[in-house]
Predict the structure.
Amino acid sequence: MARTITRKVSTAGAAIYTVPLDKHAEITTLRFTSPVAYNLEVYIETRPNTQRSLIYKLELDAGDTVSDSSLYTLNPGESLYAISSTGQTVCTVVLNEA
């Protein structure tokens, strides 16, 4: 069953979602939006070395929405990590855990 998570994206960077250690996850939809112009970086963060793999780095205008329906598979303990240049950026993630 699909689960939806909505979070504000930190200007310092933070995990938006971390897979529980006893599960795997498939992210089916990512959506980012902000009422002001913003720079956005999105990563998959692996454990235990906390290595980040860049998904995308974008410069966006006020009101722009990023909608991504690519399938991202995360292993136990991995995270979706994001950084925004403004604290007004909102991220919505649709995912399935198994």
